[in-house]
Fold this sequence. Notes:
With 211 residues, this protein is an all-alpha fold. It is 76% helix and 0% strand. The protein has helices spanning 2-17, 25-56, 60-65, 69-99, 108-118, 128-140, 147-157, 168-192, 195-209. Helix 2 (25-56) packs across helix 9 (195-209) and helix 4 (69-99) packs parallel to helix 7. It is elongated, with a radius of gyration of 18 Å. The protein starts with a helix and ends with a helix.
Amino acid sequence: MFSQLKTVVDLINTGLRNYKQFQSHKDRRDTILGILKVYFFLKDCVDDGEKLITDAGEDPVKKIKSMDPDEARKVITDWDDILKKQGIRLYALQGYIYGQDHLAIINPDLQERISEVIGYKMDRTVTLHGIGATLFLRNMFPIENTDEEKARLITLMAGVESDGLLDLEKTNAEVSSLKQSLEEYRNVVERFVTNEEILTLSKRAREETII
């Protein structure tokens, strides 16, 4: 998930650098609000994802099995809450990138490239689209999974095939790289947004993206 999100962020940054024209004052505010909402959804995905990976370790299933049942139940509940939020965020991000006029900053070529990264046309669970869909559907249509099945969803979130182990060194490097891209995203936005817009629209964007 982290490396794929980084690629998407880098592509959006390319579009943002070349986006300077607005049809009207309202279009400008709507566009900036949408861009900021995407930023907050991405940042929360990274922050919660990193927290989850750090807590779960290389083998989340093994960690759960080694715990006292009561402790394991509490940990699984915490992990499950984060995974549900991640599903909602990934679903929302895809909607903002493809379904909203205010992200017309992305030209058709970039959209096609982002579509390839997200993996809409790939019949694989570990694409960004597959990960988001799996986690989102679990939230919309909850089913009774075992603790082990819930723990395995953490490795899925990180982009690992079923029953695989997390490569923590690789995953941490992906998280660090994604954070750098998000910092560039923020810097690019600040180049064409006034201080007043940042203050007012950031507050609204943050309020509308809290899950």
